[in-house]
Amino acid sequence: MKKFLLVAVAATSFIATALAQTAPIKTGDSAKGKVLTDEKGMTLYIFDKDTAGKSVCNGPCATNWPPLMAGGDAQDQGPYTVIVRDDGSKQWAYKGKPLYTWIKDTKPGDITGDGVANNTWHIAAP
């Protein structure tokens, strides 16, 4: 019985570790070179008005620039960190800068958000 319990505890620990959310960030190609993308290949962006570890893009801004959300069990991984948004939800950041997609990008490789709003939105590059 003790061996079974030890195996069950070890398996549960392994599964929990395996299920902990990894950064859903990849590298893709665009007309401007390499870009960071989400799992679907959509370009990720950073916002000049954000400060390291803090998103100021909320409300209508977050509707147009959906944050790259992180699950409750997500953990920092190298240059990818998890920040807490104003509403308590979690968002992925790259080197401290929160990451977003752009509502007007329709397919992988689109970079239509680069330079938007008086050049305050930029492609997140590796």
UniProtKB/TrEMBL annotation:
Any GO BP: alkane catabolic process
Xref: Pfam families: Lipoprotein_15
InterPro entries: Lipoprotein_repeat, UCP029720
Highest taxon above the source species: Bacteria
Protein name as annotated: Uncharacterized protein
